[in-house]
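Researcher: Quick sanity check before group meeting.
Model: Go ahead. Protein one:
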Amino acid sequence: MTRIFLTGASGYIGGDVLHLLLKSHPEYRVRALVRDVSKGAAITKAFQQVEIVNGGLDDTDTIAQEAKEADIVIHLAATGHLKSVQTIYEALANKPKGSKSPYYIQISGASALAAGELADKTRVFGSGSDVIYNDLSGIDSIRSFIKQHPNRAVDNYIFSVKEQQSPVKTALVIPPIIFGKGRGPGNQRSMQIPDLAHATLKRQRGLRVGPGESRWGNIHIQDLSRLFLRLVEKAAEGDQDENIWGADGVFFTGVGEMSFGDISRRVAIAANDFNLIPSNEVDEVDVEEFDRLIPRGSVLLGTNARAGADRAKATLDWEPEMNSLEELIPQAVIDEARALGMKGKNLCPKLGNFARTGNAVEQGESSRAPRGSRQRRIPKGPKGESMMPQFMPRECVEAKVIENLPTPSRWVAAVDAIPDRSMTLNSRKWWEDHGPWLEAHEAGLKLPAAKWKMRG
């Protein structure tokens, strides 16, 4: 039986990883470090097979004992807590002779790639960069760059132990912007995009720091969790591939990329379309004001961290499958509006932005289709024109904004009524995410012709 010790189970990333891990491999024995008793109870309620270990990251004796007894340690609770990282590694390295090679998977953050910018006091936050890192062909330059910045203590520690002759197989995972709703029992909210949406709604205008040219990569939380799952599965198999573990075991995870100016613009447009703010204009604000509105906003939304997930694709048989960030920005705005109690506002989008023409590649999948699935059928409008639905929040359905539009229970059932039975699970998720327009049409529910926007 594979024994796993996991930290961060009540968090956004850790909770989603735990969900997928147990769903995919119920035979794994998972022990989770949890500091808060109530959060531990929530985890146990959601995942009865998880064994809770009470303690925090400073409880070195507890962490050392758990790491020593585990085959795989997944440290997702923190990216910069050096003491816990050292404790885990030393416990794994000092396992009794004859033990199986232990595996250690550590999370970091893409701000590591902005270390040079942050050290340059003359650099303008929000300015762009042409530097793009490659974790497959450019691993030496990545290590060299991070070693120039001692404040990246955890990253540099992992690099230093990778260079030693040690039985511990290490992998360092460095995510960029993470988006999408988590599936864990604790925090299900990400940071950068929700925080930007929150600030936009609070100040009633869009905002960006500097010229808005800086860029980070991005990844859906479920795609990130599948990458962690593939690493765990490789470890459980006893994989010894030096392209995965050790000195070269550094995984960037960006699968999309947008400038922060474009993200700010899309947030403002969505908020305005939902009648939550009076204008879709975006203001350029100074660093001090931006950081006041969004803690560490100038770092997380005003620097450059450009890198793709080349190593994961090449070594883990992994590809992204989920919706793009562009598609899910409107939902982030809706979620933050709900959190702010903006229920009195009309959250239904203006009709002109509501139904569009197009094809499945351009608008449905953002140029990415899940493996094993075929291109989706495109519905026909009242005159036979090709139609694609755009995002529509469920509030609009529940309010019955459009005559004859099915209620949530009916449009979920309408998905099942679609005759194309070749759809994969990911395809079904795509249909559900894109709202009731297509489901209603496919199920034979008549929509008024005026509700469709004609091609051309």
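Researcher: Fine. The other one?
Model: Protein two, sequence then structure:
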Amino acid sequence: MASPAAEAEGDAVSAGFAELEWQQLLLASCTRLYKQLEEHFASLERGIAARSDSLHHKRRATEARASRLLAARRGGRIWVEEERRPDLALLHHASPSLFLVFVMPAMERD
């Protein structure tokens, strides 16, 4: 039969081992959750970057169209053809003030 000291030591070892197993499970769980969060934030960053690129492209296109319209306005050559109406709608949506100042007066002359 084991002595009380040996039993106490065995119980302490068992308790210590159980604690280590619990900490291992906790660490594995935290690691898994961290990786999920990391993947989620990486996905968010990719989405934001794609949307930002899209907005920059649309802004450059709108600025180019506005520049062409302003150049035509300065030259007195602005006219509204049926195929140009979608571009004017885009300009009006992107910058209503530019549309009102530069395009509407030319449309009223036509």
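Researcher: One line on it for the slide.
Model: Helices lie at 4-74, 85-94, 96-109.
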